[in-house]
UniProtKB/TrEMBL annotation:
Protein name per its UniProtKB record: Branched chain amino acid ABC transporter substrate-binding protein
Upper classification of the organism: Bacteria, Pseudomonadati, Pseudomonadota, Betaproteobacteria, Burkholderiales
Superkingdom per UniProt: Bacteria
NCBIfam families for the chain: PRK15404.1
Domain Leucine-binding protein: 29-352
Translocase found in the keyword field: no
Record gene name: livJ
Similarity comment: Belongs to the leucine-binding protein family.
Length: 374
């Protein structure tokens, strides 16, 4: 795949080559991690950082890449779409050529055009919204996670085959990620003839969702799907239980955060969610899992191993291209597959994985999760 760029990106690629041939030859290869390190979902940034840190430590211990060590630079976007371009411009201005992230879909969408135009390779391990890549023609944007239009149908298939509800409410947080996956679930349920009695957005960050819970009671739904993140899901679960609403709740991977237990209390028990398959249970990954454990990190979270895989993809791309040149690295990755803890991965023309598996889990009041078994 031959990558074409704007004049700005072409100039940057030339400047990069000149820089690498000169005094910067001995420098480390810097990789930025862009994600939420402040705000209400910092845990997701921490999950991704655990994966990137572990991968970089192992790569460097094995001799690095092209004789150079990898160096991580963290950049905060607070999971805010308006902060995505700010973080991206900082990375570009700092002449960092590779990015793991962004973590949240809204911030990712807002940053991608900058990276693509400036010839910076970005690999997101967690942004699942289709709009990250759809119809953009970006060559420098990749994922190591599936999309919401893979996750949504997987959730809907599970709901239809395992839960078999009569009337469903589909809620969302009015944001790119949450609303997108909620719409996907609603569409799949409606196609199958299941009644979606309520499709409504709530305001992220609010503390009182009693109005929408009253609607759940009045419509008589027997199942609720929520598209969004754990702070809102935790409040919905707790306040629904307080109002005597006894229905099953389900959400996407964004609700799978141990901090939801402190918000929802006992009401979180049995919450359903889709998550990437638990690759930490793969026998082939046990040495990597031990590397996490040795640093008191958890390899079994939603994004740790997809972040590890994103870092491995960048490193293997540099090796395969034979140069610290993000344009050549992107071309290499588009044309080849890479062995990672989440499998042998490859990408389609627009940078999405050719294959990815989501499983359904039950969440428990002690913060653990198990693959759903009816």
């Amino acid at each position: 795949m031959k990558i074409r760029f704007t004049p700005v990106a072409a100039a940057m690629s030339l400047a990069t080559g000149l820089l690498l041939s000169g005094a910067a030859h001995a420098d480390n290869i810097r990789i930025a991690l862009a994600g939420p390190f402040t705000g209400s979902v910092t845990q997701y940034g921490d999950m991704v950082k655990q994966g990137v840190d572990t991968a970089i430590e192992q790569i460097n211990a094995a001799g690095g890449v092209l004789g150079k060590q990898l160096e991580l630079v963290t950049v905060d976007d607070a999971c805010e779409p308006k902060q995505g371009p700010v973080a991206a411009n900082r990375i570009v201005n700092d002449k960092i050529h590779y990015v793991v992230g962004h973590v949240c879909s809204g911030a990712t969408i807002a940053a991608t055009e900058i990276y693509n135009n400036e010839g910076v390779l970005m690999v997101t391990p967690s942004a699942t919204a289709p709009a990250v890549t759809d119809g953009k023609g970006y060559e420098m944007i990749l994922r190591t996670i599936g999309r919401d239009d893979q996750q949504g149908p997987a959730a809907a298939k599970f709901i239809l085959e395992q839960i078999k509800p009569k009337k469903v409410a589909v809620l969302h947080d009015k944001q790119s990620y949450g609303q997108g996956i909620a719409a996907s679930v609603r569409s799949e349920l409606q196609k199958a003839g299941t009644e979606v009695s309520l499709f409504e957005g709530i305001n992220a960050g609010d503390s009182d969702y009693s109005a929408v819970i009253t609607k759940l009671k009045s419509t008589g739904v027997d199942f609720v799907y929520f598209g969004g993140y754990h702070p809102e899901m935790g409040l919905l679960l707790r306040q629904a239980a307080e109002q005597g609403v006894k229905v099953h709740f389900m959400g996407p991977e964004g609700v799978g955060n141990p901090d939801i237990n402190a918000i929802a209390g006992k009401a979180v028990e049995g919450m359903l969610l889709t998550l990437p398959a638990d690759f930490s249970q793969d026998p082939d990954n046990q040495a990597i899992v031990k590397a996490f454990q040795d640093k008191k990190r958890d390899a079994s979270g939603a994004f740790q191993l997809s972040a590890y895989a994103a870092t491995i993809a960048i490193a293997e791309g540099i090796k395969g291209a034979g140069a610290d040149d993000p344009v050549k690295v992107a071309e290499y990755l588009h044309a080849n597959s890479v062995k990672t803890p989440i499998g042998q991965i490859s990408w389609n023309k627009q940078g999405d994985l050719n294959d990815f598996k989501f499983d359904v889990f039950s969440w428990h009041a002690d913060g653990s999760k198990t693959v759903y078994n009816k």
